[in-house]
Each structure stands twice: as C-alpha cells, then as structure tokens.
Amino acid sequence: MKNEKGKMPLASLVFFFHFALVIFPLPALASWASAGSLGSNQAKSAGTSNLTITTTAAAEANNVIVCALAADNLDTADAETTHWSVSDSASNTYTRATEFENAQGSAGGGANASIFFSKVATQLNSGGTITFTSDSSVTAKAASCWEFTITSTNVVSVAGKSTLPTDGADPAAISLGSLSAQEYLWVHALAGEGPDTDAYTWDADYTQLTANGTTGASAASNMHVRSGIRIFTGTTDSVDVTSDTSDRDYAQVLVALKEAPPPAGPATVPRVIRW
Fold first, then answer.
1. 149 and 231 in contact (C-beta within 8 Å)?
2. What does the pLDDT read at residue 21?
3. What is the Cα–Cα distance from 83 to 236, expressed in whole angstroms?
4. What pLDDT, on a 0 to 100 scale, did the predictor assign at position 245?
C-alpha cells in the first residue's frame, strides 16, 4: 500500500481514518440542560393509580423526563423498595432511579420518596398525562415532573444514589459521593409528612422544582413533595434543606444521573483490500 518512496497514498490514509471512526467512534460530550416544568399534582384519596399529572408543556423525543414523588409509606421498616411505577400517555418507559421509605413502624406512618426518569422515545404532548401507580392503595401523594435536554444519541443511567430518613426533626443533610469525575444531573427529592403549606429554606446550590402537596385534616394525614436539581461536574455533593415550619417525618433521596454514548457494538472486521 506504499508508493515507490515508501509513503502511504492519500486515498489509503482517508480509508483508514474513516475505518477508525467506525470502530472507535468519538464520544458525544455530556450536555445536561434544564428545559422546564412539565407540571405537578397531588391526590388525597385512597387508590393505586389516582395520581396523574397533566403536562403543561411538550417533552420532545430524545429529551429526559425526571419525576419526584412523595407518598404515604407502605412498608413497616425503613428500606429501599419498589412499590411505585410511572407511565405516560405516549407509552414512554420510566426507570426507577431510587425509591425509599421512612416507615415509622407502620404503613401510612411515615413517608416514601422516589425519583423516576425516562429517555423520551415518543414525544409527550402538552396536555398529555403522566400517571403514578402503586401496588397497594395509598391515600396521600404528590408528584412533580421536569424536562431536560441531553445529547440526542446518548443514554441515561444512575451513577449513584443515597437515601436518608429523618424522624420528627429538621431534615438532615443528605450526601452522595465516590463517583467518577464527570458532569451529572444531581436530583434531590424530599417527602414530608405534612401539608403543602410547609415552608423550607432551600440549599443554595440547588434549583428548586415545582412543589405540590395535600392539605386538610391533621398535619400527619398529608404529604408534600419538594425537589431540586443541580448540573455540575464532581465526585460528591450534599443537599441541606431547612424546615421553616414544624418538624416532620421525612424521607429524602439524592441521585446522580449520567448521560453517555450507548455501548459500542462488536467491531466489524473489514475485507482485506489488495492494492
């Protein structure tokens, strides 16, 4: 493949350059960006699928929907669990990033905090619905959903997660660390066993998402969701939220979502070309 002077012809160099890009494609750079709220809602009646958000904006294909959920707990001991699932009217698939219950020893005695996400395959139009379904009847629950943009060909995964219960006290700071240094979407969700009128001083590093919650009757019969996000490159982070009203039973979760190119398929060996 060399000419009489021992140099590779230009055509051959071009061929090998293109071949190398096929076998070793350049990675798409991470590029999380907030696109805004998709809506929030609450429900205070017993049921398994009576919490639905009607979207206030469209979530376009290849974007990411992230939802924070707060609900009455179903378990009797503090633990990560899998009681909830999420679906939408465009049939997109939702992944549970984490779901954690502060149980307080009995069903309905504490709080469940969850985060779900979806890499949108089919556009979810404004006026569409996002439905939250539990495997057993739950009375008080609230949820909020937000849209983000990423590199369209990238995939999303959970790089790390942390959970924290707080019992009848100011919410403690929650931390997550030991991650590889790169850009993440850090998502925090707090489920509080109290009315939506409860107020907080939010962590200054985090942008608070749309809040919602139930009201009426005793404080402990209600549930509210508070959530926030931060986009930055790092290996560790913490969120410290202060209650400005009464101290409650809380469940908190913090996750780091990573975007990256999809796994490469098997390399294709080209035919040998003789010159």
1. no
2. 40
3. 28
4. 86
Give CA–CA dist 248/169, Å, rounded. Answer: 6
Model confidence pLDDT, tens digit, residues 90-143:
999 999 999 999 999 999 899 999 999 999 999 999 999 999 999 999 999 999
CA dist 62 and 271 (Å) reads 35
Q: Give the whole-angstrom CA distance, residue 67 versus residue 115.
A: 6
Exposed / middle / buried, residue 264 (Cβ in 10 Å: 0-12, 13-18, 19+): exposed
Provide DSSP, 148-184.
EE--TT-EEEEEEEEEEEEEEESPPPEEE----SEEE
Distance CA 153, CA 149 (A): 11
CA-based R_g, the chain, Å: 23
The position carrying tokens 């975007």 is: 259
- Would you list the DSSP string of the chain? ---TTSPPPHHHHHHHHHHHHHHSPPPPPP--EEEEEEEEEEEEEEESS-EEEEPSS-B-TT-EEEEEEEE----SS-EE---EEEEETT----EEEEEEEE-TTSTTSSEEEEEEEEE-SS-B-TT-EEEEEESS-EEEEEEEEEEEE--TT-EEEEEEEEEEEEEEESPPPEEE----SEEEEEEEEEEESS-TT--EEPPTTSEEPPPEE--SSSGGG--EEEEEEEEEEES-EEE--EESS--EEEEEEEEEEEEEPPPP-PPPPPPP---
Other beta carbons within 10 angstroms of residue 123's beta carbon come to: 15
Q: Rounded to whole angstroms, how far apart are CA atoms 29 and 237?
A: 22
